[in-house]
Amino acid sequence: MKEDSLSRSYTIAFVAAFLIYLLRRYCFEMITANHGPLYYGLVYAVSLAMVIYLHIRYKQPNRFKVHLLALLYAGLLSFFVFYTSINIQMLCYAAVGESKTTVLKIDSVQSYRVKKTIEGSLIFVTYENQPIKFESSGANYFALRDKKQIKAVIGRAGANNFYVSKIYWKDGEKWKARATYWKYRLDFLKYVLAILLVMGLGGILIHRINKGREKQQKPKLDFKASPLKVILILFGVLMAIGLLLYLGLFLYMHFKYGFPKNT
Q: What is the pLDDT of residues 117-142, one digit of tens each?
């Protein structure tokens, strides 16, 4: 396996994960995440089985360090599979299921913070006499924190989950909330951008230094010697398949139903 193939697997995996995140944010105003530990346990078991197969297939040494790395690889793989499967499930239910326009009573709105920075929000509503906890964006925290109720399009995703594909905003209301949100995050983002800039410049510098030391003939990576390379290639394939399915469902809903209808 050549080094450029390994780099492509990295790129496919992370770009796909990022695009799936953006598509989910674009398609849904709010979603629930009531999947429970049993579902993640199943995903991890499948991921671990795949890693064990590759572990045996490429005859890895019987050492504690190797076994520990296999567990870590399975955890990383299960994270990608879990995240992708949840997003695809939500979009599938939204594509083939039923939704309706109703008025949701807002019980409370909380911000989800990481290091004193708002990363998202938790919206607690009552729907058909049932309390529901939705996950939403940071912008929606500012848009909904002073509201008592909202008119929205809501649908059910399986037995325990719901989604809101549209909220009927007043003119300019959502954009004003977005502006407030990004203004709030400006001080934090400038430090993140500075760190990324330093890391990028450092990476370019290291690459140039190493490039001068490299021989013209690049050695091939030993594919059989490390299961990590196998897992990375597997990440790329799974993320590419998941992204294609996700895009297909999104385009189907967009052209057939005009989804999402954001205002």
A: 677 889 999 998 899 999 998 889 99
Residue with tokens 């990375």: 232
What are the beta bridge partners of residue 157?
161
Mean pLDDT of the chain: 75
Paired residues of 111 in beta bridges: 121
State percent of the chain over pLDDT 70: 63
If one counts every other C-beta atom within 10 angstroms of the C-beta of residue 24, the result is 19
pTM: 0.64
**pLDDT value for 126:** 93
Please provide the DSSP assignment of the chain as one string: --HHHHHHHHHHHHHHHHHHHHHHHHH-SEE----HHHHHHHHHHHHHHHHHHHHHHTT----HHHHHHHHHHHHHHHHHHHHHHHHHHHHHHHHHS-EEEEEEEEEEEEEEEETTEEEEEEEEEEETTEEEEEEE-HHHHHHHTT-SEEEEEEEEETTTEEEEEEE-PPTTHHHHHHHHHHHHHHHHHHHHHHHHHHHHHHHHHHHHHHHHHS-SSPPPP-GGG-HHHHHHHHHHHHHHHHHHHHHHHHHHHHHHH------
